[in-house]
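Would you mind writing out the residues of a protein together with its fold in token form for me to study?
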Amino acid sequence: MARGQRSCCSRRAPRCPGAVHVRDSKNADGPTFAVGSQAWGAFVMYGAGA
């Protein structure tokens, strides 16, 4: 998906110490996954191009 398009969305669960739980916001009953907080931070920094 090209940047700027908004047809793909994800959500993360707030206030989960040590882990980030993620799901597709358009499929609330679909699969979820969890990653460690440090791994999530690295992913966000990568996505931000830092």
